[in-house]
Specification:
Elements: E1 27-31, E2 40-43, E3 56-60, E4 62-64, E5 68-73, E6 79-89, E7 92-98, E8 108-112, E9 115-122, E10 127-133, H1 138-145, E11 170-173, H2 185-193, E12 197-203, H3 207-210, E13 226-230, H4 232-243, E14 248-251, H5 253-262, E15 271-275, E16 290-294, H6 301-309, H7 312-324, E17 335-338
Parallel strand pairs: 1-17, 3-12, 3-14, 4-11, 14-16
Antiparallel strand pairs: 1-2, 5-6, 5-8, 6-7, 7-10, 8-9, 9-10, 12-13, 13-15, 16-17
Helix pairs in contact: 6-7
Length: 339
């Protein structure tokens, strides 16, 4: 399948540079998954009216870490920027590096007088592995010297505190699960009152989610692994929901990928896992019956996933509808509900 099939034109004016003041006042486009009706405009605060008592809403409670660090290479003083994308073990990280060709095994990148990174391994595509050198807790070091890794298309840095869901708990992501940014305590109260069950899982967003597709044939694209966690309580509730034929609705593509990866031998399983699942048109969904998601970049694996859940042309037509109705795109933008 050609990469060009997932391209669309998007003038810069549609790219949301800042979050809307009230999270749940973003727009919500409601789509029939089968494409039998035209898209309809609502506000995200209207979400509860489209869900039914007994529905299961699965959210990703990962927390974005201050994963971007700026420093310089010891000896040459060359400027180096590190983006931490996965914690391998204590004080050891897989990273993407700007000016990666300047960083080889054994090189030291100095962030401050008391924090530096030693390169321990190199891979293609600017990937480097680092050992963090710091006398103290690594979380303290990152909080002190790291920056929130806003996407490169967001030029405004003054609202980085909003690049986090209100239910973020487990630190480990280098990007936010942006479909969850629209939720407020008030919405959760309305959902609970209506009898909609909320289940938390975790997928730490890394390179697998945001790496661009370089191959003209999308089947040749290889997803990088990302870590996801489903605890015993969540598994029991998910398996009970399936047994009772309840509808499972994924909040975001990350929750979707974790759920679809985990479901094997007709049930969910608890534990810590790795997934490199690549969902694109032709994929047969096993458990997810609804999706809440933002509007994604052209030619991205996220757009391909959405185009697998609902027909590609229908999704691209919905994107054109969104432009005509002044929707805001990407991380700080508006949302769609596909049922």
């Amino acid at each position: 399948m050609k990469l060009s099939l997932f391209n669309y034109e998007l003038p810069k004016k549609f790219i949301a540079q800042t979050p809307i003041e009230k999270r749940d006042q973003s727009k919500l486009m409601v789509l029939d998954r089968n494409g039998s009706t035209n898209p309809v405009n609502y506000n995200f605060s209207d979400l509860p009216k489209f869900l039914n008592s007994g529905d299961i809403l699965v959210i990703n409670n990962t927390k974005v870490i201050p994963a971007r660090l700026k420093g310089y290479k010891k000896n040459t003083l060359a400027k180096i920027e590190i983006l931490l994308i996965e914690k391998i073990k204590k004080k050891n990280y897989k990273s993407i590096v700007k000016n990666a060709k300047k960083v080889d095994v054994g090189d030291i990148v100095i962030i401050s007088n008391d924090l530096s990174f030693e390169c321990t391994k190199i891979e293609d595509d600017g990937i480097r592995f680092f050992k963090l050198i710091y006398e103290g807790q690594e979380e303290t070091a990152l909080d002190r010297y790291g920056e929130t890794p806003l996407p490169p298309y967001i030029k405004s840095k003054n609202r980085s505190e909003r690049y986090q869901t209100i239910y973020a708990k487990l630190s480990g992501s280098s990007a936010a699960p942006t479909a969850g940014l629209h939720f407020t305590r008030n919405i959760f109260k309305k959902l609970e009152k209506k009898g909609i069950e909320i289940i938390e899982i975790t997928l730490h967003v890394g390179l697998g989610t945001f790496q661009s597709v370089k191959s003209n044939e999308i089947e040749k694209h290889k997803m990088h692994e990302e870590t996801y966690i489903i605890n015993t309580e969540a598994v029991n509730r998910l398996n009970s929901a399936l047994k009772n034929n309840k509808r499972i609705i994924s909040v975001g593509t990350t929750s979707m990928r974790a759920l679809e990866s985990n479901f094997k031998k007709n049930k969910f399983h608890s534990g810590v896992f790795q997934t490199s699942i690549f969902i694109y048109p032709g994929y047969k969904f096993k458990v997810v019956g609804g999706l809440i998601t933002n509007f994604h970049l052209p030619k991205s694996t996220l757009l391909m996933l959405v185009s697998a859940f609902a027909e590609r042309k229908y999704i691209l037509n919905a994107y054109e509808f969104a432009k005509k109705n002044n929707y805001r795109f990407f991380s700080f933008g508006d949302a769609m509900l596909i049922l």
